[in-house]
Amino acid sequence: MGELELLEQRWIALRAMAGQKKMSKLELDEYWDEVHILSKKMAILRAKEHQELTEELEKIGIIINNIFDLVNTKIKYPKAIPILIKHLQKNYSEKIKEGIIRSLTVIEAKGKAVPILVNEYLKIPKDNESIRWAIGNAVNVTITKEEAELIFPIVLNKGNGLSRQMFVAALGKINTEKVREILKQLLNDEDKVISEEAQKALKKLEKKNLPKNT
Predict the structure, then answer these.
(1) What is the DSSP letter of 21?
(2) In whole angstroms, what is the distance from residue 192 CA to residue 195 CA?
(3) In 3D, which of 189, 210, 211 has the Cα closest to residue 198?
(4) Would you give the DSSP letter of residue 65?
(5) Which pLDDT belongs to residue 210?
(6) Which of 6, 63, 84, 108 is the most buried (most CB within 10 A)?
(7) Contact residues for 78 (Cβ-Cβ < 8 A; gap 6+)
(8) What CA–CA distance (Å, rounded) separates 102 from 111?
């Protein structure tokens, strides 16, 4: 485990500790001192870690301090998509990986990112549900009809838990008989969130099949 991951773990532990007990003034002062020190150290290490990514983006005219500048911008960045897809496959820390995933959650990545997103999803441990859910959300935005089969095994594997939710939602955009068949299977999923998402997706597809008023 690298230094950045260790600092991130300490950050999480600190936040959890703050929510578990009432602190004295001295404890609060010590808590905030450590939070500020950790924040500065993590910012420096993250900038160093994804320096190659920021330099490649700068070459195409996109200037960022960190990957979350892209996540939060309202400006479209279609030229950055191939670079982001390439870097998604690199061995970054979890926070930067999350930022790349979220920066690919844009319509400009449609038809380009899903195979790599699915591959990354399958690499991530099942207990890391938040990152896997974020990948599902990116797939929901970027999926095409031709890519639907890539996510069938994901949604049908109950071991993937709640991280399946947005993959199921994505199927509501793909109007094929096979998709409807899988969504019907998921109506009986023991996880209520998944079964309800399947129901929503089916309703969307049913509306698409309704005859248009003339």
Answers:
(1) S
(2) 5
(3) 189
(4) S
(5) 55
(6) 84
(7) 108
(8) 16
